[in-house]
């Protein structure tokens, strides 16, 4: 009740408490009420004769006053918004400041609060004292517009952090939900949405709105993202770094875009991510940005490396690298002779080195190992040649010779590169994704053993397993073969299931999708091997339960099982109609 009249006394306006006091201390209450109404009603002479007319219609005075009040408040809100855009800048803000001074004492009065909040919203600089009063009161802080909150946040990093933190958690959770989604498809995967679609997401839009044109708040968010990336090594923070900048770019917030040294680089890379390929023209642009980092400005490499560490950027660079290698095979050209390929490797290296660079604060491009270019990439090209040779051999008449077997061994150096060199490992994994997508079972089974031990366990990362499980749906018919299942499950997946819960989840996702293709005996042994342990999380238990339910539904009922032999009786022969 007190809140309804908050601040009226300070302005010398009578309120409910005054009326209560008047009625308590008077001898003629009706006269006192009439006097109170006259003193505090709408002071318009022509209205006095009209009010009894409302009484005849049974309209309470409260209803009348409320409707007048609402109408006046709407007019006042419109006027405040008009003042904020008319006349000279100093004059309009002076008017608003005066209005705020007069009305601020009523800020806690629910009916007047929207007007006070509207005045503050249009002031580019609300007086410090008033901001502190708003910040100290939870309800006022909650009610004020984002324009006012920005002014509070820019000097209160901890408070801003409290507002941003739940959004960042939500963002990471959304990314992980996509990676672990039960919908496994080669067409619709983690990387399918276009960059523009992704930045329409709730979190990016909310953060963009919270930042507005405020460079200080933008810098704070970037600092949060760097800190969280360092603390967790979670690459989705790098994605958000790029998405946020491009969201501000879409809205043409030049106050921020013009001061972010990564803007043009990110804009160009964003176009490459949209096409899932780095073409020659854009490659030259990107190279220009990297070569243009001046002495004394090397710190920008930390931000550029974070932009390049975004999984969407890595995906684009790796896909482009595989495509370049295939082109080089056709051109009889070595990797070291292709400037475009070397640039892709340079950017991959910068992206993969982001965490180390930001952690060590040594802003220098990582040195590329010569052997990556002189040994590893030619080795990948030799695998492409092996495939071509095998395919040609299959088509040749084979009277003189028996069929040539597909090469089954892999060079020891290949396995070593995948274990010791991060860039080689990334490219090697994308090559394996490429051959799986081509349904090249022979090449897949040949290279699969190399994935058991990789640099930093990259072959067991969520992004790779998400893509691999999607691509494996193209080899669905192979799951009926014992040899294929043994190589894939026993030889690869199950080697890590017990120590890595995410692998356990991805295998269960794959089986939920392809269980009907797997031989029953193998499926049963896999179901046992994948049983959750006491340490397993809820997600694993839930997936295993889903798989068990699906398998139960597949089992024939006892009645069907007993009737099965009758199917073996000889069927009556049906005479075929004579052909005319």
Key traits:
single chain; 580 residues; mainly alpha; 3 domains; 31 helices; elongated; NELFB factor; COBRA1
Would you kindly provide a written description of the structure presented here, covering whatever features stand out?
The chain is mostly helical and 580 residues long. It is 67% helix and 0% strand. The chain is built from 31 helices and no strands. It has helices at 16-24, 29-40, 45-56, 61-83, 89-103, 113-122, 128-136, 138-143, 146-153, 157-179, 195-198, 202-211, 215-232, 236-250, 254-257, 263-275, 280-291, 300-309, 311-331, 339-352, 354-360, 370-395, 412-420, 422-437, 441-447, 462-472, 482-497, 501-514, 520-529, 538-554, 558-563. The radius of gyration is 35 Å and the shape is elongated. The termini are far apart. InterPro entries: COBRA1 (IPR010405). This is NELFB factor. It comes from Corythaixoides concolor.
